[in-house]
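[step 3/7] inverse_fold.run input=structure_tokens len=331
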């Protein structure tokens, strides 16, 4: 049996829960492998979908930018306003975060019938008459003005055919698929940059570890020199208690020990890489881990006076800040 490589829409399976019911159901079959949509995605993207058939042409454009939550804003023709909730539901199944602007436009070449929005027209004319009486104004309502009022003429509900609604649905799905491709591509670039930043941090951890091993020796030398200087100034002949000196050195070295911070820093980096290859809630978790990375870098900076440690810790903080900026755009 030959495989179907056509780009034509295929009938949905019954368990796929299509957008609308009680009419022919459609799915958009994409050649893009499903695995591409499991990668880390950016919240910035643009997608366009179009359907043209049987006298109906529908185009849908979807633009997304970063946002802490999912915020969907629709611009729909009045004829499909009833689809607002359903379209938002479909988008929420495909997107997790970001501000989403959706613009739907259409053109129907078949003959349409319009009906008057009588309550709206009556309310408008009543307000005009009240204005004339209250302010004693001359003149009569102008037909051209009334006809140009929004929603005065409505397409008959019977003319919103299932085929037209199905075309809108398929155009929305196609636009989301196109959007997914761009967001996934942007996500791969973000992943590459974040990986480079993590590697730069790891390169700074090595020198910090080397200096951390010298902390006890540095404290011993500094304390011994300070005591010798004090004794030399006073002229006193006092023998240094080496045991007591060792206790003081151990106490100060313990307070300045950064081995735990270094271990946690490495663990956070490994966890960061693991999350970037995950599928769900990537952006929020990376944002939390970025805060933890920054916390460890701050602690390392404050616990030791070693110049080389501080220089490398500050360089790590600079990389973390760059990571924070990029993570804000991860879905």
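[step 3/7] decode complete -> sequence:
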């Amino acid at each position: 049996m030959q495989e179907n490589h056509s780009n034509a829409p295929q009938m949905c399976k019954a368990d796929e829960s299509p957008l609308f019911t009680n009419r022919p159901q459609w799915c958009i079959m994409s050649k893009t492998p499903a695995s591409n949509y499991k990668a880390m995605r950016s919240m910035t993207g643009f997608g366009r979908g179009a359907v043209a058939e049987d006298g109906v042409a529908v185009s849908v454009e979807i633009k997304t930018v970063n946002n802490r939550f999912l915020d969907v804003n629709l611009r729909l023709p009045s004829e499909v306003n009833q689809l607002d909730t359903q379209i938002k539901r479909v988008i929420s199944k495909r997107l997790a975060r970001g501000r989403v602007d959706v613009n739907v436009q259409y053109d129907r070449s078949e003959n349409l019938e319009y009906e008057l929005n009588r309550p709206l027209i009556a309310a408008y004319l009543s307000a005009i008459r009240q204005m004339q009486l209250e302010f004693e104004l001359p003149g009569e309502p102008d037909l051209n003005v009334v006809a140009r009022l929004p929603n005065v003429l409505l397409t008959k509900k019977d003319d919103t055919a299932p085929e037209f609604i199905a075309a809108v649905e398929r155009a929305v799905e196609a636009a989301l698929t196109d959007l997914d491709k761009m967001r996934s591509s942007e996500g791969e670039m973000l992943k590459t940059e974040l990986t480079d930043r993590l590697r730069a941090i790891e390169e700074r951890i090595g020198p910090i570890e080397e200096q951390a091993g010298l902390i006890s020796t540095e404290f011993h030398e500094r304390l011994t020199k300070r005591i010798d200087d004090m004794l030399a100034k006073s002229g006193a002949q006092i023998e240094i208690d080496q045991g007591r000196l060792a206790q003081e050195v151990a106490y100060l070295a313990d307070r300045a020990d950064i081995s735990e911070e270094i271990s946690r820093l490495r663990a956070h980096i490994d966890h960061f890489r693991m999350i970037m290859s995950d599928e769900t809630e990537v952006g929020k978790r990376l944002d939390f881990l970025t805060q933890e990375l920054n916390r460890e870098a701050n602690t390392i900076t404050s616990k030791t006076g070693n110049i080389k440690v501080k220089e490398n810790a500050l360089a790590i903080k600079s990389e973390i800040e760059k990571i924070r900026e990029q993570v804000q755009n991860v879905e």
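[step 4/7] annotate
The mean pLDDT is 78.
The chain has three domains: 21-112+159-184, 115-147, 186-327.
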